[in-house]
Automatic annotation (TrEMBL):
It comes from the Eukaryota. Its main location: membrane. It is found in: Cell membrane. One of its GO terms (molecular function) is olfactory receptor activity. This is Odorant receptor. It comes from Laodelphax striatellus. InterPro entries: 7tm6_olfct_rcpt. The keyword Membrane applies.
Amino acid sequence: MIFSLFSSMAVFLYVGAVSMYYAQNELATFVEIAHAYAFMFGLSILLLVHYTIHLKSTQELLKLIDSGVFEYDTKYGEEEDNKFRKTMEFYNSIFKNVFRIAIWVAYTILVIFAPLLVSFTGEGNNQRLNEITYNLPVPLWMPFDMNTTLGYSLGYSLVCFNIGLIILYLSASIPFIVFVAFEVNIQYGILKRSILGLEHRALEKYIGYCGLTEPQKETLRDDPIFVRCVQDSMKENILHHLEIVRLFDMYQDVTSSIFGVAIGVSMTILASLTIVLTKVNLLSVEALKFSFMYLVEVMVVFGYCLMGTFLTSGSQQIETALYNCPWYNLHESQKKIFRIFQFRSSSSIELKGSGLFLINLQLFVQILQTTYSIFNIFSSMDGGN
């Protein structure tokens, strides 16, 4: 499948480049081709980087998740943790199913309804550029005669096949990216409850060591065995936190280039679509098509930014949990360790694109403000002319 994907993408990168050359003086056609070309070019770069650089990191990330990020020695809160995990896995499965349905619906619209709409509106028969075939899922130039039934069938099949391979790859890769993000958040939720139940976990350890049935925590403050149990429980929390950070660092190493290229391409496409929307009749079918493309790109960027905020807010819960746990009952030596842990956890994790910019909802707002400014500038220019 990978060889077929790389081969078909190489062919269509060439076809797309020639198509953009022919459409350089036709803005709407050029932007529509450039939209698909930018997506294809970005995906080809990401695939190349993944299979040459990040393949081993991805395998290590999967092994870490399969083996379990961290296991506590105590059973306290295990039932609540399992409920929380099942709830998050349920949300993840909903996303996975909805995403796969949506992406295949988009494929159906693109390969069936889009060419039919072009033919129905007459755009396919009254082509603005003779070199470009408009009644394809994406208007393209082909290196053979597209005016014959055989030529059109071959070109249409090649485009559909290429889009289908990309859809298959996305339907596997995007759910994996979201799955790991959910796993990071699950681990932070488990760590949060574990910190809040620090004394309960220490008491469970104490009972296991001493064999007592119902000791009172208040009478054990100065018991050296209980103090050691508290220290061991705190050590588990610190180790768990370190494992979560290691998990996120591996995740960031694998996905940083993905987010960087994906959001960079989406920002460029949004700017281009905004300019096109100022040039076309807003009541035309063409405006409807470009508006739909714009909304899809906005939803994609929103999903990435929401994921970044989701991860950051999950990590910020740890500092709050440390503040709310009964730290005042700890011995002075343990309080020093506790303060160091609190200082380390105060630095929340942040999802970054290619290590250059933060991915969160603030970035999404900035992108919308930028595209709105572009729309106003070009609309005023056209109004002035």
